[in-house]
Amino acid sequence: MDKLFVIAIGGTGMRCLESxxxxxxxxxxxxxEIEVLTLDTDQNNGNKARVEELDRYILGAIDDxxxxxxxxxxxxxxxxxxxxxxxxxxQIIICCTICKYPHDNKKDRRTLDLNFGQVDYCYIRIVNExxxxxxxxxxxxxxxxxxxxVEFGRLFRVGDSWEFEAMGRAHxxxxxTLVDMYT
Length: 183
Hints:
This is TerD domain-containing protein. It comes from Pedobacter duraquae. Pfam families: TerD. By secondary structure, the protein is of the alpha+beta class. 20% of the residues lie in helices and 32% in strands. Helix 1 packs parallel to helix 2. The protein starts with a strand and ends with a helix.
């Protein structure tokens, strides 16, 4: 396991750390151990407090960092215990992106031409883990020919419960587009 040391200094450092935290929440650094050091002498600007609050919101709700809980049928599984999601979180957007050069692990320039129009059987489903019952399934039927990032759907709070809305919004610009939209 690799170990990353992240040092965030000042307001700009805290804003960078906030973006880094969002990337961690979607699994971008799952195989690394991360140590964080923060230094912000201006306690009035709130950047450090916002990052600490974000960490409390995200951590603890998503489980399956190494994919070992997958049932073998789906390529990617995410287990979200909605009872552990901080009360301040109003929605969880489920996204998928195609990792492209230079960010792909193999640094393969051929990834530049990949898009969701080339992906067969692309779907999201919600399953009751207790009994294995499929509660809802949303198949991405649109054929996207240029897009490499998709917002599949969102879980959102309604009172004390959660509901799901299928979205199917496609974008170009891969992960960075989604990070820019939501940070």
